[in-house]
Amino acid sequence: GALAYYTDALLYIKSDKAVASIYNNLAATYMYQNDPVKASLMMHKSLEIKERMENIDPGQLSQGYNNLGSILIESNDTAGARLYLEKALAINLKQADSSGIAMNYFNLGNLYAKVKDYKKAEPLILKSYDIVVRHNYKDILSDAYRSLAKLYNNTGDYKKAYEFQLKYTEYKAAFLTSGMTEKLNLAQERFDAQQREQKDKQQ
To answer: Could you give the count of Cα atoms lying within 13 Å of 129 in the half-sphere of its Cβ?
Structure first.
């Protein structure tokens, strides 16, 4: 499996960049297996290497910090998660990386929501939502809808909870419809190509 492949690769790969990437992939694999403790260990190893590399892309560091923060949320390590998410946010603010900033605010908001500190959670998730809508970051939008619906449901603002749940449901339905249309168009193209091929053979 993936774990064996990545573990074996560590035995013969010496490049710091490649080794950091392998540890990152191991972290993702452990998260997929619902093991945030091992995932955080692997992500720490990846970041230790990246932090000592010269000319490291700041975006890679911020992404690593954000990923570790997300993992630590699942491990219920609130202080650790906040530390790394704020590190990621500081880099992304300096780099003016709006996509990264949106993701950092979103994760920080969810961190506070998880510990039921909704007064801190709401403005952070709304900041993320504002950036996401402004830049049309569709990969984060559905998560923002769902998080805001959950947050307002938990705070008893059922009108807003309903509004965001509706947005989330409509977005998911549109996404599924779009995906189905794409599949149907592809099937039609393949059928048309097959028909043309058969006609050519008959001529």
So the answer is: 19
Structural tokens at position 38: 């091992």
Instruction: Give the largest CA-CA distance in the chain.
Output: 73
Token pair 């009108």: residue = 159
DSSP string, the chain: -HHHHHHHHHHH---HHHHHHHHHHHHHHHHHTT-HHHHHHHHHHHHHHHHHSTT--HHHHHHHHHHHHHHHHHTT-HHHHHHHHHHHHHHHHHHT-HHHHHHHHHHHHHHHHHTT-HHHHHHHHHHHHHHHHHHT-HHHHHHHHHHHHHHHHHTT-HHHHHHHHHHHHHHHHHHHHHHHHHHHHHHHHHHHHHHHHHHHHH-
Centroid of chain to Cα 14 = 28
Read off the pTM: 0.80
In angstroms, rounded to a whole number, what is the distance separating the alpha carbons of residues 17 and 46?
A: 9
Give per-residue pLDDT as tens, 24-41: 999 999 999 999 999 999
HSE-CB for 99 with a 13 A CA cutoff: 7
Tokens at residue 195, please? 């028909």
What is the C-alpha separation between 105 and 110, in angstroms, rounded?
9
Residues 170-200: pLDDT tens digits? 888 876 665 555 666 566 666 566 666 666 6
